[in-house]
Amino acid sequence: MQPASGTNGRINFDPEKAEQGLAQLVLTVVELLRQIVERHAMRRVEGGTLTDEQVENLGIALMNLEEKMEELKEVFGLDAEDLNIDLGPLGSLM
To answer: Please, which residues have CB within 8 angstroms of residue 52's CB and are 6 or more apart in sequence?
Structure first.
């Protein structure tokens, strides 16, 4: 698969590949939110504030979301590194 961002870790805004650049940006934001939700969920699980059923449902939901992200990355020819965009002096996003 051809990386969408090339080797510099930046979003590809080439007019010929606008769809893929937009997909990369959207999936990067979704991945960032997924990671935040996952961390929050783990804190709740470790804090013991969830029932066993809630923990099970949460685990299934997170696995399904991760699976869907993998499918979408495959559809748009992206990999995990493509979603780790370079924010210049701020460093990498993830």
So the answer is: none
Instruction: Give the residue among 8, 13, 9, 26 at the shortest CA–CA distance from 75.
Output: 26
Query: How far is 94 from 81, CA to CA, in rounded Å?
Result: 9
- pLDDT tens column, 1-49: 444 444 455 665 666 677 888 888 899 888 888 888 899 999 999 999 8
Residue 65 neighbours by CB under 8 Å, 6+ apart: 34
C-alpha torsion angle, residues 72, 74, 75, 81 (rounded to 10): 70
